Amino acid sequence: MSLVSEDYLCGVVRRTALLCKLNNWSFVQEKFVNKAQNYFGELIPITLSGTRDGELVSYNIVLKLAPINEEYRVSGAVTVMFARETYVYSNLLKAYREILQRLPVRSQYIIPKCYYVQQEYCKEFIALQDMTVEGYRPYTHEMFLDLDHTLVSLKSLAKLHSLSFILQHEKPQQYEDIMTICVPLTESTNSRYMDIVKDRLDKAMKKFPASNITPLLQKLRKNCAKYFKAAVYSVGNTCICHGDVWKENIMYKYEASIICLYRDNKPVSACLIDYQTTRKCSPAFDVMYLILSSTNSELRNKYLQQLLEIYYRTLEITLKDGGIDSQTVYSRQMFISDMKTVAPACFITANTALWLSNGLQEEGHVRSKHVWTTKDEKEKAVEKYKTIVSGMIDDLTTFGYISVNEL
User: Fold this and answer.
1) How many domains does the chain have?
2) For residues 84 and 167, what is the distance between their CA atoms, to the nearest angstrom?
3) pLDDT for res 4
4) What is the 3-state secondary structure of the chain?
5) Would you say residue 116 lies in a domain?
6) Across the strands, what pairs with 281?
7) Where in the sequence is the domain holding 87, given as residue range(s)?
8) What tens digit of pLDDT does each residue of 390-401 get?
9) Torsion from C-alpha of 15, 21, 25, 31, nearest 10 degrees
10) 366 Cβ neighbours under 8 A, 6+ residues apart
11) Where is the CHK kinase-like domain (predicted)?
């Protein structure tokens, strides 16, 4: 994406300032202390200041800007994703905020304030609260989350899913209206995405020629659309899921406020971001995808049951706080059964994300942020990717979630 011009940025800030009813406004472009990988659009932190009713007012904002160059819109994927996210912030999360006002502290879900959204084609942007000012940071110093970060992430995810069930219970018509926008991911609703995940499976097979993994990858590639459909229509229940909840889309707040100590301190809260693929799906999809894409094999093998327990226990508590019996809408048995149903689609999605994050996607409109330039770097990246993929398949097989004979 080309760099945003000063004139364009000023125009975006001007519209935000007008909506915030600021007079005599000005802004300063800031820099992130830590920055996770962002593949769709550009993130620009600013401090927006002005007066309102004679008093000085200041906002810490992150502007999320869509690509303004139509070259990046050929496939339509970016346009669809920004349309989905602007809708989520202006409608779905607004409804969740109303629910959260009635829930106790233990069931609060962190939602960045949304100051303004613009949906004009090639000029889409979202003006969001800068959560780094609130002490939240991306997890950037390791490729995979540790146990504490994973547990906090799953608690936040359970609260997100609970809000969906509560909204459906309290305002079924509003829920149905939202579902007409947050549609399931299938070949008919997003053929471009399905083409991408199939292409990444093709690339994976080339890295595992004639290995014991090849037959499984071949079956996943052949029946790809079926697995994504099953994650919606062959499960115990569905809700409005995040759809892309992995390490890169989570920020954490820690016990201490000194940034240099974050690496050694435990996270106390998680904030999920990037709602571009929010959709109807099984809650188990988000859970399985987060665990597969964002933890290593050692952690999964040691703590999987603890991870599943903390998620479901948080779901139970939050639903109870919202006046809903978890056994009615999403029982533990449903959850455990759904984990197996969604496993193939989750692996396919995780493979796509990890191919990208390992610096192996060199072409297309969505490319790796850190592409390797030397032969040695590429070979090391490929071996690392292969180790990760092999570990995911071994774990899914060991846990009984995937069997080549059952696919």
Assistant:
1) 1
2) 19
3) 77
4) CCCCCHHHHHHHHHHHHHHCCCEEEEEEECCCCCCCCCCCCEEEEEEEEEEECCEEEEEEEEEEECCCCHHHHCCCHHHHHHHHHHHHHHHHHHHHHHHHCCCCHHHCCCCCCEEEEECCCCCCEEEEECCCCCCEEECCCCCCCCHHHHHHHHHHHHHHHHHHHHHHHHCHHHHHHHHCCCCCCCCCCCHHHHHHHHHHHHHHHHHCCCCCCHHHHHHHHHCHHHHHHHHHHCCCCCEEECCCCCHHHEEEEECCCCHHHHHHCCEEEEEECCCCCCEEECHHHHHHHHHHHHCCHHHHHHHHHHHHHHHHHHHHHHHHHCCCCHHHHCCHHHHHHHHHHHHHHHHHHHHHHHHHHCCCCCCCCCCCCCCCCCHHHHHHHHHHHHHHHHHHHHHHHHCCCCCCCCC
5) no
6) 239
7) 71-111+144-398
8) 999 999 999 999
9) -60
10) 39, 40, 77, 196, 356
11) 126-321
Q: CA-CA distance, 251 to 240, in Å (whole number)?
A: 20
pLDDT in tens, 333-367: 999 999 999 999 999 999 999 998 888 876 665 66
Would you say residue 9 lies in a domain? no
- Give the Å distances, CA to CA, from 37 to 70, 138, 248: 22, 9, 6
**What's the rounded mean pLDDT across residues 131-159?**
95
Token representation of residue 321? 């706080």
Q: What's the confidence (pLDDT) of residue 255? A: 82
Write the CATH number for 224: 3.90.1200
Whether this prediction's pTM lies above 0.90 is answered by yes
- Residue 211 binned pLDDT confidence (cut-offs 50, 70, 90): confident
Quick: pLDDT tens for 75-110: 667 788 889 999 999 999 999 999 999 999 999 999
Query: What are the two backbone dihedrals, phi and then psi, of residue 280, each rounded to the nearest 5 degrees?
Result: -70, 130
Residues in the chain: 407
CA distance 319 to 325: 7
**13 falls within a domain:** no
For residues 318 and 158, the answer to whether their CB atoms sit within 8 Å is yes
Cβ proximity of 241 and 282 under 8 Å: yes
pLDDT at 122: 79
* Residue 117 domain-assigned (yes or no): no
